[in-house]
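Section 5: illustrative case.
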């Protein structure tokens, strides 16, 4: 019941029920994931010290792996040593994908239980909140920025409430209340790949 198609279906469903959406995505998501914060979240759920030791080994092996992709973000209460905090998870690792969702799990509960957003959708670091009015979304946005700062994360500054009728760019599509269309860039890329495959087949380089 999950995956990209299910997420797109849910997005379109809520776009048909609510007139406004707040779309946000975490800036520098994988490079920003703080090891100490992740350890704290995992330690609250895991009691096996052997598993926690293994977590530490995996995290320590990846220290600095995305340092070149991270621009320092300062949060309230930071001192100069904050720049030295170990952070970043290798993009593509199976543990990274799983831990990224674990990292934002407390944020999911915050949106659903404390903000009481009835229509909330997140796919990795891209999230949507739907509401009946812009003012509610503005209030939620301020609360979201403050809550994500606890996890040493920040959203892109371009996030703002807007009508769903403008279209919601999500997971390679632009979603409207009654339809969705593939992003033009995705369509062009697909056609080029299809042409290459057809040419390779004609040259006998690949088979059906």
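Designed sequence:
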């Amino acid at each position: 019941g999950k995956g990209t198609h299910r997420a797109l279906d849910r997005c379109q469903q809520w776009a048909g029920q609510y007139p406004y959406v707040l779309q946000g995505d975490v800036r520098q998501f994988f490079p920003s994931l703080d090891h100490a914060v992740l350890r704290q979240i995992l330690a609250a759920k895991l009691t096996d010290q052997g598993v926690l030791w293994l977590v530490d080994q995996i995290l320590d092996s990846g220290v600095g792996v995305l340092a070149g992709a991270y621009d320092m973000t300062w949060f309230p209460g930071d001192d100069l040593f904050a720049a030295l905090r170990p952070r970043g998870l290798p993009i593509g690792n199976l543990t990274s994908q799983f831990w990224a969702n674990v990292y934002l799990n407390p944020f999911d509960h915050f949106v659903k239980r404390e903000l009481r957003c009835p229509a909330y959708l997140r796919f990795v670091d891209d999230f949507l909140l739907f509401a009946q009015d812009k003012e509610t979304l503005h209030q939620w946005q301020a609360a979201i920025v403050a809550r994500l700062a606890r996890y040493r994360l920040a959203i892109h500054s371009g996030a703002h409430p807007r009508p769903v009728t403008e279209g919601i760019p999500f997971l390679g599509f632009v979603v409207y209340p009654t339809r969705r269309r593939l992003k033009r860039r995705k369509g062009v890329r697909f056609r080029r790949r299809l042409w290459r495959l057809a040419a390779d087949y004609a040259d006998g380089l690949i088979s059906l």
